């Protein structure tokens, strides 16, 4: 029997997210409604419906439609469309990469804490997993010297989450190049979950696949593009890995679904509009959040780089899990307790909720913390 730990953040959200009045726990930029998605054409979805009306509801394009693959490939500098494989969200992309490459006895180094898939799936496959810890005092960066100590001649993979979930910290190109050089020294793969794009200056973001032939980039439309309900993600790799992934993908996913592929492709057609909408929301909410932090003496945070997740520390005299449960019960405000990321005293706070939700959620959070004054 395969052993795997409970998925902390998902278990919490599965239990509580539908109970919240003020949900400031999510790491998605405020989700688009179906009307907003379809009206990206400025004509109430006529463009999309003309596409849909001609489409048979068969299996469609197994790896993703040609237009989908082309539009995703353009997000990278060195990836051919044929090497883009559509998956069931970034979770499906991560599973595909890990399932394809990791075997019992392999050595994996995983950024920690980060998205739990990236270390607990390798563990469940029998890998020897070492944690590469991030440090709050270093703006949630890991230490490159620690990586040099962890790397082994038999290291199979280094797993990163860039930007990091839950902290929102973005590893810059210079740092990633150091990681790549260490990986190259032993021939290790570098798998990076890249679902959070920093919207203050997205052009400066560097993908792992553009730095390293053995880089593996996973991504989706769930966070930066505000359509998690579409459940479409992808892997971006070299040709050899794409061929390997194809074999394993046949066992895990036939296709993303005709309708989902069409919506995903349509969103990517209108990528600039979606990012403009989300950039305005992220930067506006970030100012609200910064102002709240500056005036809230019971909270501190390493500010994220214009991505949709953050990890503040709360000064409350009860354990964080109990605090978050009581906050939801008494004030209707939902956060993710830091113990879901093995980091007590912190919470994941998704400040990219709709502006009114963020303002009221922060107001009620402050009120609730100050009962302890």
Automatic annotation (TrEMBL):
Per UniProt, the keywords (alphabetical) are: Aminotransferase, Transferase
One molecular function GO term is:
transaminase activity
Looking up InterPro entries in the UniProt record yields: Aminotransferase_I/II_large (IPR004839), PyrdxlP-dep_Trfase (IPR015424), PyrdxlP-dep_Trfase_major (IPR015421), PyrdxlP-dep_Trfase_small (IPR015422)
Aminotransferase class I/classII large domain residues: 54-365
The domain of life is: Bacteria
Is Transferase tagged as a keyword? Answer: yes
Write down the CDD domains for this protein, in alphabetical order: AAT_like
Q: Which PANTHER family match?
A: AMINOTRANSFERASE FUNCTION, HYPOTHETICAL (EUROFUNG) (PTHR43510:SF1)
Please give the name of this protein. Answer: Aminotransferase
**Which organism does this record belong to?**
Limosilactobacillus fastidiosus
- Could you read off the lineage of the organism from its UniProt record? Bacteria, Bacillati, Bacillota, Bacilli, Lactobacillales
């Amino acid at each position: 029997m395969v052993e795997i730990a409970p998925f902390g953040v998902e278990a919490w959200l599965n239990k509580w997210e539908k109970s919240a009045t003020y949900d400031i726990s999510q790491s998605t930029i405020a989700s688009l409604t179906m009307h907003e998605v379809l009206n990206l054409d400025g004509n109430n979805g006529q463009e999309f419906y003309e596409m849909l009306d001609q489409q048979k509801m068969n299996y469609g394009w197994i790896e993703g439609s040609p237009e989908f693959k082309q539009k995703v490939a353009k997000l990278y500098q060195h990836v051919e469309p044929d090497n883009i494989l559509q998956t069931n969200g970034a979770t499906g992309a991560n599973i595909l990469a890990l399932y394809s490459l990791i075997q019992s006895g392999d050595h994996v180094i995983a950024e920690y804490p980060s998205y739990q898939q990236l270390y607990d799936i390798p563990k469940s496959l029998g890998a020897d997993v070492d944690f590469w810890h991030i440090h709050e005092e270093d703006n949630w960066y890991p230490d490159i010297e620690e990586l040099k100590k962890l790397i082994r001649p038999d290291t199979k993979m280094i797993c990163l989450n860039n930007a990091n979930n839950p902290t929102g910290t973005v590893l810059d190109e210079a740092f990633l190049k150091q990681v790549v050089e260490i990986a190259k020294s032993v021939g290790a793969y570098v798998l990076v979950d890249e679902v959070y794009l920093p919207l203050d200056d997205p052009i400066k973001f560097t993908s792992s696949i553009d730095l390293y032939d053995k880089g593996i980039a996973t991504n989706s439309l769930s966070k930066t593009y505000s359509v998690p309900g579409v459940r479409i993600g992808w892997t971006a790799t070299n040709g050899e890995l794409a061929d390997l992934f194809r074999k394993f993908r046949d066992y895990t996913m036939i296709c993303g679904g005709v309708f989902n592929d069409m919506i995903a492709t349509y969103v990517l057609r209108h990528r600039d509009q979606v990012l403009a909408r989300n950039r305005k929301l992220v930067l506006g909410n970030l100012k609200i959040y910064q102002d709240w932090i500056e005036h809230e003496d019971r909270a501190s945070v390493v500010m994220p780089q214009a991505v949709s997740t953050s990890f503040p520390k709360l000064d409350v005299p009860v354990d964080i899990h109990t605090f978050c449960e009581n906050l939801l019960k008494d004030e209707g405000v939902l956060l993710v307790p830091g113990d879901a990321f093995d980091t007590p005293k912190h919470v994941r706070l998704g400040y990219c909720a709709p502006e009114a939700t963020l303002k009221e959620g922060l107001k009620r959070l402050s009120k609730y913390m100050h009962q302890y004054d």
